[in-house]
């Protein structure tokens, strides 16, 4: 093999690793700066947590130790030794296992829509299983890559198991470690049951693996579990162990999942899919037929998958509900009960808990991010007077859940970051603190008994309770592993959803008799019940087109006998694993004392843990450019990459060598743990280049070049309702000992909507430069941003100041963008403009003005940024995007084409350019029209989040020729 070929293969491998790693160079954002961090170390794990979450950390560690002996069941290797990082101030409950650096991240606020297993047990069972999968993939050749590239080499192994399998296997473990877990919930199979034989009616099955832009498709958690559970029962073993084993040792085979399945089990993914859903549909079709006992209320035509939620009676003629569809944000609508016609009332933000209505006012809560810190996401109490239709927030109520009007004022559930729940409210409302380890998932006020009632989850399961006048709580039902949801009350009855019958149905509890009854019968499921005071119960009922607002009379009461478990009706028999049942694991006061004695909590110093080198490369690259600008510049050398476990600091250090410049050392540090985003960078070595007046070729300066820079950006996020507004203020300082005349660069920051990284605008030896920027954006939250451009606008301006202004000019840049949905569903219209001017210009004997400009956002079609060397520049663009085809197909196992989009646009630009032949500066205009053709596809049957885009572009500028260009985006 020649040296050139070897070099090419090395670069290709590094680019693949860098591309895969882009998905893993990931940060959830920093927590509030006021938190004080602690850590607990055991031989197997490290738990990092704020001191306010000490009890949560001890409890989670207890469940980790209980799960560890069996969490690796079915795989030959157990879990990684991995740190767990707790984030207690984010109400958007979730968990994540990541490389770079490897860690498990827990958002510890219990999920709003949960089932009968406590939240921390769910997180441990699911996320710790991912640590098992990663440990089995990080073997063989993949392990060898980790010695060459650090942890980013291990990320290549993530391509060896499809994401639907990774998540499906974790759901399977989560279900096996519970009494009646996530995958056994009737709602987990509801979408597939509603689709029925349509899942198998098409020859090309890729839509079910990759999602669809036309129809609703269950996500990869649902799909992955069904295939994984079927395969486990069919072959009496976890077949994915051999798939992972083979892939880690033969990653160069690329399609290792298909090869391993054929080699060891004489099957493939397509066959497993067909057998899985043939068996499921056969089982579901054999069940007794069921008809909805409720009647749909809305007469509006369903144009796309639509969700109605939480219907509430306003009066005898109107029902209020939340409505969401593909094209518009969540909004309140009123439905006329006679005609079925709707009227939009007001848009809302992302609703966290159900609304309640009383005396003309609607109460609900919304997720609202804090102004400074990404990991502080609150649940804001909101209200609206129905006749005015203007939502408002209640100041200071940022930890509220389940607002409930009572005869003494408003009550709600309060959650604190230490994991404790309490019922509180306005003056006069009965206050009650829930016991430790008890989660509250509902609150209701009954007018007849004048009491508050709640829905709770603890180690015994889910149960209904009542708050007594003396401030104590009473069990109405015993704890059971039966999921209950959406609690409301009226006229001496509690209304809620229950899966006791094996389906999601509407139930009620008679407070006078202490008896529970089932009210509804549903084909697939009914949810969100509330009484209308006219002898009816309102609800939402599901079918393949979504959740529909419905109503039925309360005329049939079917008694429900108490039980510890629901009926298991819609789930076919699956093999049971010999693993721990976390429902039987208790964390007592004695366990807490024992844990504190065995594992002492110590202070976790943020300054001492600012750097954590997780990856390295035998070449010199700038990883920040790879991530931010998709710019990969590979040179001989070495690179170290660091990110701390708290996701507040990122840095890199690189050494490069080339024949022309010799040795160069570069590095950069970004820190966002204070709210203000700080950045420092430096370069030393090499020969900085200049462009002498009138010369096209650069001339090197013989002295060693160095440059130091520091900057700060203050991104302020103002989330209110369905709009998110962002204001970004930035300032930067740069010092260089080199002379640079026209290597100017502006980079548009998509996150802060501002121009940043103003480097090399124009220096002389020992010259400082100051840069100031401001950016503002106002966007509308939409349900599906993947194919609708958010409505809103962006404005930004920057000013680069040369303090001496002897031979170099100041630079002013202004940018604006407006985006709207367009004139048809899934269309978008975008208009943008930018203007740049320099004050004074670069002075030299020839009188030229050399100032290079680059914007990542707006360059006229057919022109490269290098074509624009100007002290005055203007450009404007108008673009319309529309889908031209949803093919829903592709080449099995390789590519899946999801959508083809067409961009039609026109551009106009004006800039100053020096004409060497005429010896003077002239103003030139450019205008063009044309478009871009996008083909969205998936590789290796990844889900929608892993979409790549093939872009074919055609341009027709006004002067000469036709520009053709094509680019290919790699999967990440």
Structure characterization notes:
This protein has 972 residues and is an alpha+beta fold. The protein folds into 5 domains: 34-157 and 580-604, no CATH class; 160-287, no CATH class; 295-559, Tricorn protease N-terminal domain (Neuraminidase, 6 Propeller); 675-680 and 701-858, no CATH class; 878-972, no CATH class. Helices cover 18% and strands 41% of the residues. It contains 15 helices and 52 strands. The strands form 9 sheets. It has a 17-stranded antiparallel beta sheet that branches. Strands 6, 7, 8, 9, 10, 27, 28 and 29 form an 8-stranded mixed beta sheet that branches. It has a 6-stranded mixed beta sheet with strand order 4-5-3-2-1-31, with helices on one face. Strand 4 and strand 5 (103-107) form a beta hairpin. Helix 6 (163-176) packs across helix 10 (220-235) and helix 11 packs across helix 12 (256-265). The longest helix is centred in the N-terminal third of the chain and has 20 residues, at 3-22. Residues 1-23 form the signal peptide. This is Bacterial surface antigen (D15) domain-containing protein.
Compile the SSE list and pairings.
Layout lengths: L2 H20 L14 E5 L3 E6 L3 H18 L10 E6 L6 E5 L4 E5 L11 H19 L2 H10 L1 H4 L8 H14 L9 H10 L2 H4 L4 H5 L9 H16 L4 H10 L6 H10 L3 H17 L9 E2 L9 E8 L4 E7 L6 E6 L5 E6 L3 E8 L2 E9 L7 E9 L6 E2 L6 E7 L2 E7 L5 E5 L6 E2 L5 E8 L4 E8 L2 E7 L5 E3 L8 E7 L2 E6 L6 E6 L4 E4 L7 E6 L4 E8 L2 E8 L4 E2 L29 H10 L3 E2 L9 E8 L2 H7 L5 E9 L5 E10 L3 E13 L1 E10 L3 E2 L8 E2 L5 E15 L2 E14 L8 E5 L4 E6 L7 E14 L11 E10 L8 E11 L7 E12 L32 E14 L3 E3 L3 E21 L4 E20 L8 E10 L5 E6 L4
Parallel strand pairs: 2-3, 3-5, 7-29
Antiparallel strand pairs: 1-2, 1-31, 4-5, 6-29, 7-8, 8-9, 9-10, 11-12, 12-13, 13-14, 15-16, 16-17, 17-18, 19-20, 20-21, 21-22, 23-24, 24-25, 25-26, 26-30, 27-28, 28-29, 32-33, 33-34, 34-35, 35-36, 36-39, 37-38, 39-40, 40-43, 41-42, 43-44, 44-45, 45-46, 46-47, 47-49, 48-49, 49-50, 50-51, 51-52
Helix pairs in contact: 2-3, 2-14, 3-6, 6-10, 10-13, 11-12
